[in-house]
Specification:
Length: 281
């Protein structure tokens, strides 16, 4: 699981980008408010959701105005109810309003990812299968979304193209075959996990003999996956992928595969409905 300590530089970069595109060279609307005005505000969730993005919100107001006080009433991974207060703010009214949209955009997107991941994780909670995300993430927010996936109770696949092999059909064709692809992967980067995609039982056996760590079963039916688990007999980990829907998820989870990868965790997330309101004194 990614930690906020290792994500700190990425959080700072995410926020800097968000503020650059939103605030630009100044918030001309906030300038309508006297600079001396001091206000309090609160942010609530308009729906049941899993919260994620505290560090990003804190960083928004740190970059906008370090004197703004942020008081959290929940933490990342908490399941909150409709109309529940997530955090309170106190500081310059200009600063609160300037940081509002960037903070809420990040919080609602990451909470949406965490919420969807929580829903999927709950469906398979009584099975031993691990649900994995994919690289189908919002550009620029990959690490943030992968953190959100873990806050929701699912797990991360590889982070990018650099930390593990995932040898797919086109790679196999370009390398000259399954055996050649796996052998070259071992030679080029010893110690890196080697996963390979197969479409048939014959390809599965070749991948197992060649020493793949993980085999992705692409578009296998649940029945074929049960047979593939038996065929593999513990020689490698197995991952189910392709055309797995809400209706068929449990069918695949009960086949005995180790992992199910679901692109929807990050690409089908819907932003959580949040609202910030200034508190009248």
């Amino acid at each position: 699981m990614l930690t906020l300590t290792e994500l700190k530089p990425i959080v700072e970069e995410n926020v800097r980008t968000a503020l650059d595109e939103d605030v630009g060279n100044g918030d001309i609307t906030a300038e309508l408010i006297p600079a001396s005005d001091h206000k309090r505000a609160r942010v609530i969730s308009r729906q049941t959701a899993v919260v994620c993005g505290q560090a990003w919100v804190d960083e928004v107001f740190r970059q906008v105005d370090p004197s703004v006080k942020v008081q959290w009433l929940v933490k990342d991974g908490d399941l909150v109810e409709r109309d529940q207060v997530l955090f309170r703010l106190e500081g310059s009214a200009r600063s609160l309003l300037t940081g509002e949209r960037a903070a809420l955009n990040l919080l609602q997107t990451l909470s949406g990812t965490a919420t969807l991941s929580h829903e999927y994780a709950q469906r398979v909670a009584d099975t031993p299968v691990t649900l994995l995300d994919t690289r189908k993430t919002i550009p620029g927010l990959r690490m943030a979304q992968k953190y959100a996936v873990s806050c929701g109770g699912c797990s991360n696949h590889r982070i990018g193209l650099y930390d593990a092999f995932l040898i797919k059909e086109n790679h196999i064709m370009a390398c000259g075959g399954i055996e050649q692809a796996i052998a070259t992967a071992r030679k080029n980067h010893p110690g890196k996990p080697v996963e390979i995609e197969v479409e048939t039982e014959e390809q599965l056996e070749r991948a197992l003999v060649a020493g793949a760590d993980i085999v992705m079963l692409d578009n296998f039916s649940p029945e074929r996956m049960v047979a593939a688990v038996k065929q593999t007999a513990g020689r490698a980990k197995l991952e189910a992928s392709g055309n797995i829907t809400d209706e068929t998820l449990m069918d695949y989870a009960n086949t005995g595969v180790d992992y199910i990868s679901i692109g929807a965790l990050t690409k089908h997330c819907r932003a959580v409905d949040l609202s910030m309101r200034i508190i009248e004194d």
